[in-house]
Amino acid sequence: MKKPLILIVEDDAWMAERHARNLEKAGFRTRISPHAIDAIVAIDEMRPDAIVLDVLLTGSTAFALLHELQSYSDIGFIPVILCTNLATEISIEDVSPYGVKRVLDKATMEPDDLPAAVRSVL
Amino acid sequence: MSVKREGRKQLGVGLFDGQVPPLIAAAHELKSPLALVRQLALSLEAGDLSPSESQRMLRQISLTSERALRLTNDLTRSARLDDAMFTLEPINPQQLCEDIVQELQPLFNAYGRNVRFVPHRHPLLLVGNRDLLRRIIMNFSDNALHYAESDSAVEIQIRAFNAGQMIRLGVRDYGPALSSDMWKTLQSKLAKAPQSVHARPQSSGLGLYVASQFADAMNGKIGVTRHRDGATFYVDLGASRQLSLL
């Protein structure tokens, strides 16, 4: 069976690398996008099974990407996990209409938290 | 992709579109490097890494800590600008920029990026404070590091304008363009400085706020130019007349 593909949208290369490693250790395939524009192309081409999304990104914020995703019926259903330092300022109720299933706090999360969150939304 | 247009509430508006109190901005700005250092340390604790991977991550921890420390040092310097004694003197910006490039190279290399200095054709002298100017350029470069595409170099540039009376030191990055909305916000906030300026979305703008304070203290000003493929953050300072007297 093909391993689920997780798109990591994170502009800090070293943090993205940590996320990828933690997910790959847990049996997922990963692809990293450093900004929203690259992410849109990657989503269109690769149809990931889930998206791990930082909020404050290069070029435009995660919210612009979430709006964009919701504009397309065939990709709007992909589950999104926000993984951000702003977790305490984001309510899941506000973002769930945009496909966001979980919000993780980058400042306090443990290495196993991200794979667990991804498993919970697949 | 199949288009599905729906009216929805604007997300994200108001999150960071107002003035951020300095203490909150400082806390936010420090959270990113600290969160990264913690994740790296947790990975090292897990202990399933090769010696070379461990070595690389230790290097990432030290470089990330240095970035966070630079910010705290800038904040301290900024808070003490009024009572601190600093001299304005003629400075050779080319030498300063070369020194900065040398200092930043290890950090850029570790991120797989490059930083280079684009020298001016003729020797220039400006009036400023070497320490404050260095902090401004380091700050702009740090900002650019995050936004530069991996295969591009960040350039530190110098040019004279206004018939040679002003000198501009700019840090040019090649990355995603600033959106029009972001550009308008940035322009209006730069015009109203000193106040919190949104450098790029990732930043609360604290770095630019501090840079604008340092520039003010040297009778200069900071600004930004948008390009199709990135941005140039710059500081303008008066040229020294010493060269013309020679």
Q: Can you characterise this structure?
A:
The complex is a heterodimer of chains A (122) and B (246). Chain A is of the alpha/beta class and 122 residues long. Chain A has one domain: Rossmann fold. Chain A has 5 helices and 5 strands. Chain A has a 5-stranded parallel beta sheet, with helices on both faces. In chain A, helix 4 (92-95) links the parallel strand 4 (80-84) and strand 5 (100-105). Chain A is globular, with a radius of gyration of 13 Å. The mean pLDDT of chain A is 90. Chain B has 246 residues and is of the alpha+beta class. Chain B has a domain at 88-245: Heat Shock Protein 90 (2-Layer Sandwich), CATH 3.30.565.10. In chain B, 48% of the residues lie in helices and 18% in strands. Chain B is built from 7 helices and 7 strands. Chain B is globular.
Short structural summary:
The complex is a heterodimer of chains A (122) and B (246). By secondary structure, chain A is α/β, with parallel strands linked by helices. Chain A has helices at 13-25, 36-46, 62-70, 92-95, 113-121, and strands spanning 5-9, 29-33, 50-53, 80-84, 100-105.
Provide key terms for this protein.
heterodimer; A: 122 residues; alpha/beta; 5 strands; 20% strand; B: 246 residues; alpha+beta; 5-stranded mixed beta sheet; two-stranded antiparallel sheet
Order of SSEs of chain B, N→C?
HHEHEEHEEHHEEH
CATH topology of the domain at 88-245 in chain B: Heat Shock Protein 90
Largest sheet of chain B: 5 strands, mixed
SSE-based structural type of chain B: alpha+beta
Q: Which range does the strand content of chain A fall in?
A: 15-25%
Mean pLDDT of chain A: 90
CATH superfamily of chain A: Response regulator
Query: So what's the CATH class of chain A?
Result: Alpha Beta
Percent of sequence in beta strands of chain B: 15-25%
Number of strands of chain A: 5
Instruction: Estimate the helix proportion of chain A, in percent.
Output: 25-40%
Largest sheet of chain A: 5 strands, parallel
If strands are numbered along the chain, what order do they take across the biggest sheet of chain A? 2-1-3-4-5
> Secondary-structure element order of chain A, as H and E?
EHEHEHEHEH
Average pLDDT metric of chain B: 80
